Amino acid sequence: MFEKSNATLEKLGAVITTREIQQEPKLWLETLAICQQHQAKLADLLASFELKENQKIRVIFTGAGTSQYVGDTLVPYLRRTGDTKRFEFVSLGTTDIVAAPKDYLLADEPTLLVSFARSGNSPESKATVKLANKVVKQVKHLVITCAAEGALAVTGKADANSLVVLMPELSNDKGFAMTGSFTCMTLAGLLFFDQTDQAKKIDYVKTAAKLGEYVIEQEDQLAALVELDFERIVYLGSGPLSGLAREAQLKILELTHGQIATVFDSSMGFRHGPKSFINEKTLVLDLVANDPYTRKYDLDVLEEVHADQIALQTVSIGQVSGHEFTGQRFDYPPSETLPEGYLALPDIMVAQVIALLTSLKIGNTPDTPSPSGTVNRVVKGVLIHEFE
Questions:
Q1: Global pTM?
Q2: Can you state the percent helix, strand and coil of the chain, rounding each to 5?
Q3: What is the mean pLDDT of residues 132-140?
Q4: DSSP bridge partners of 287
Q5: pLDDT tens for residues 90-100?
Q6: Does the domain at residues 6-195 carry the CATH identifier 3.40.50.10490?
Q7: Is 6-195's fold the same as 218-361's?
Q8: Cα dist. 126→71, 119, 153, 348, 350 in Å?
Q9: In percent, how much of the chain has pLDDT > 70?
């Protein structure tokens, strides 16, 4: 796919999605530079909170769909590496906040609302900002978006209590599925809130980019997996990679327009009922953690399913170091061991490539996978009710 001409890809209805996946590693390096330019401005915004002694700032990562899964991936990692003495990190969907604001917005908790959005035009995203301003006594906004002309960016730039950070221009995906927008926004969240030494974070980004390029180079290996006669797919992971598993399964669900059935779960949680989803036409893929303790649980469930012989294929995805699954493996080449927050970047590219190839396999067009038009790139038909 990645070596085909644009003319060939256009005939397949896949030129946009293919190129947007292919360019992701380059965009991560651009995101690194952008975040470095905005770090001081974010520090000033956070310093403007008026806090009582020992009071924390509640950092809500929010978005809808894929944009929500950015926060789902970030929060477990930041609870380990972020400044938890200063911040309380939570991930909430705008869809949840809009439907039940009293359940999620705390009036007396100083709140930084971090809005992730590709377009910034989703009704729920716009409504969540308004609700937070209405419900929370002290709220400020960090808007991380890919569209300069989007509603969130435009209104944020006009608000003294907001900081707008625009992701690389090419991260504003034109395809149906979010790819580079997801990984760039995830990386921005890491760079802004991970307290790891700056030089080390730069190394992580460079290593992640090299691994992302490796994923593109290994298209044939992933294509061989997609050629198997499967009708269902399972993505598993632990900690940050559990949140990422939800995004991984969404990609194939979207690009096949639901023709491939999908499930996601944590590696440990999968045994408690969801394992019933497996049949002889199921692929089971686990995003294996690099943390030595957590990795044991990922490998345990992989070995269990592999030994049960109930799935068509069971696959581990991870870095080679300590990655000892006896079944099929997708191994990255030897490199610096990445913590899971940064490993998420190349990992999701694996899922994106699998989704792209599967969409074509079943005769779909990845750039416009919803033939009926009932599922839209930017959600439509949402009625926002007045909240009193």
A1: 0.96
A2: 50, 15, 35
A3: 97
A4: 237, 317
A5: 999 999 999 99
A6: yes
A7: yes
A8: 17, 11, 10, 27, 32
A9: 96
Q: Which CATH superfamily is domain 218-361 in?
A: Glucose-6-phosphate isomerase like protein; domain 1 (3.40.50.10490)
Rounded-to-integer distance, Cα 288 and Cα 298, Å: 6
Residue count of the chain, please give it: 388
Strand order in the sheet with 261-266: 261-266, 232-237, 282-287, 313-319, 328-332
Listed in sequence order, the residues at least 6 apart from 285 whose beta carbon sits closer than 8 Å to its beta carbon are 233, 234, 235, 236, 248, 314, 315, 316, 317, 351, 354
Residue 378: per-residue pLDDT: 65
Residue 119: both structure tokens together: 């377009």
- Nearest partner of 161 among 101, 224, 111, 232, judged by Cα: 111
- Whole-number Cα distances in Å, 367 to 74, 207, 237, 370: 27, 29, 27, 9
Q: What is the mean pLDDT of residues 279-303?
A: 96
Decide: 302 and 286 in contact? Cβ < 8 Å. Answer: yes
- Bigger pLDDT: 339 vs 326: 339
The CA distance from 32 to 280, in Å, is 43
Residue spans of the domains in the chain: they are 6-195, 218-361
The two structure tokens encoding residue 5: 């001409």
User: What tokens were used for 112?
Assistant: 């930084």
Instruction: Tell me which amino acid residue 335 is.
Output: S
The two structure tokens encoding residue 376: 């839209």
User: pLDDT tens for residues 144-199?
Assistant: 999 999 999 999 999 999 999 999 999 999 999 999 999 999 999 999 999 999 99
Interatomic CA distance for residues 248 and 317, integer angstroms:
12
